[in-house]
Amino acid sequence: MSRFVAALGAMAAVLLSSHAFAQAYPSRPIKILVPFTAGGSSDMTARAISAKLPDSFPGATVVVENRPGANGAIAAEAMAKSPPDGYTLLVGSIGTFAINAALFPKLSYNPREFDLLTVAVRTPNLLICNPKVPANTLAELLGYLKKNPGNVSFASSGTGSSDHLSAELLWQRTGTTGIHVPYKGGSAAMTDMIGGSAECSFQNLGAVSGHVKGGRLKAIAVTSGKRSLVFPDVPTMAEAGVPNFEVYSWQAVAAPKGLPRDVSAKLHAAIVAALNAPDTKARFDAQGFDVVANTPEQFGAFLNSEIGMWKKVVETGGIKAE
Questions:
Q1: Number of domains in the chain
Q2: Domain assignment present for 14
Q3: Could you read off the pLDDT of 114-166 as tens digits, one per residue?
Q4: Contacts of range 173-176, beta carbons closer than 8 Å, 24 or more positions apart
């Protein structure tokens, strides 16, 4: 009998300590890993979230740590190997979560094995051309590609980026071809686009809106499901003649597998509140980002869909990681 009572006491102690842990969260600094250098979309998203988390967790310290390298694998692997206690998070991109899984046969981490918290924000790509390209509509551009098979250059921010794979998807869907010219980042690609060394590209809408409005580049179509408020006169890919062509670059938040349920719920609620804060949302809107802030279950279904789509594009295009 005494052993039974002792066992019950031990179980109660475990339950109480677990409850106390969840109730006390957070009791030390929360670290958000970003797999890219400062200044990019993932970094901006992480810092926007970190600035608002103390509103939900009064007195909490939130630190953003940039760990670039290996197409995002360094930070993602470090997060995956961290204790699942809610004190290490990852804010990564479509590349970190979906494209790497489609592009690299032996990835050092498995995004499907993360505790997925939410897709934070998304922005469509804009199909843009140098003003000298003799096409002002998608139909005219496709005609230009067919008249010059394999001779029209498409700049990208790197092999396997969403802008690269958007071009591959266009060629596959329309029976056209082009020359992929990878750069070390979107800004370098835009410099050559403006200078005329590269002709076309798919780039994040917010990153190139200033160049388009300034007449340095021209917009052909947007890859969202509906027209952008930033460019209401620019048609969607579907409106322009290529249906089922929805591509977004997105940032999301994840944690190591095995988060306590109460901690996961607290984190999700706090992150959603941070993203939907009026001043934060206004900044995202101004840069062409939509706040998503969906549920972990919705994120999981979306991730499976994204990996499947890009895996097909990668295999069809015979794309190899550099």
A1: 2
A2: no
A3: 999 999 999 999 999 999 999 999 999 999 999 999 999 999 988 888 899 99
A4: 173/242, 173/244, 173/245, 174/142, 174/145, 174/242, 176/142, 176/145, 176/146, 176/149
